[in-house]
Write a structure and sequence with these properties.
Strand content of chain A: under 5%
Oligomer: heterodimer
Number of domains of chain B: 1
Largest sheet of chain A: none
Distance between the termini of chain B: 41 Å
Helix content of chain B: over 70%
Largest sheet of chain B: none
Shape of chain A: elongated
Number of strands of chain A: 0
Amino acid sequence: MKTMGLGVIAVSFVVMMQGCASSQSKGQPATAAPPQGYSSAQHEKAALDDMNRAKTARAGADKNLEILMQKVKADKKLLVANNMDLTDAESRKFWPIYDAYQQDLQQINQRLGSTIVEYAEAYNSGPLQESKAQKLMNQALDAEEAEVRLKQSYAEKLEGAIPERKVARYIQIENKIRAAVYGVLAEQIPLAY
Amino acid sequence: MIISQNMDLTNTEAEQFWPIYDSYQKDLEGINQRIVHTIKDYANTVNKGPIPADAAKKLVNEALAEEEDEVKMKRAYFEKLQNVMPTTKVARYIQMETKIRSLLRREMAEQIPVIY
């Protein structure tokens, strides 16, 4: 029986919050979550063990996850800061917009996260129902659309605040990070059957 | 090939699926060409020295428009496919398409240097 392990979900969450695929936090999800890797054929017992371990470890893991996410958030900010070469005047305008953007992105991450959890629950409880497939697909497409629109609106906001070429650079950096996130999600999440 | 192996289509479904798939691929090809065009423009501008503000703005706008069109296209084809086969299979197909596109985007993001 194929199951989508809790590890996959936890890793997905961490990855979504992850600042940069190459930052030091890359190897850490395993410490905050039970070992992952149940996306392909894996026997039931191991999956159950995994779940039980996850349950007992949950309180601690939640705390670790929280610490990890804070670190990831800081790493991302540092990465952006290091690449932007902002003057003092630009900094004063840029960072409040950046922070607002991250907060809005965070909401999209949470929507994606709960969609993944819902999918995992459905996936692990047998063949996917039509209505469930429809609902989940719509949620995923909504989140994707919202993210593009958000990016457009923040690109416009930034255009009024810092030079155009720095706006372009920032959007590129943000794209790199999101592309890494989506790449990992695509690899981790099993196909619907 | 990857798609057909994972889709488990019945004959009736296959008859309806593949023409829609082909038209989707053709539309995606249109987006790919726009992306390639944007990247070439970018490379040409960058090689000439510091990027002018209007060129930077144009590049950002083009890249964002392509992204938006691609998402809209995905939704449109999701809806079209729902008329011809079970939603579970449509969802599976969209997942595969998303996987392939996200790997492509990651590849591009890694390859294209940041504007300076």
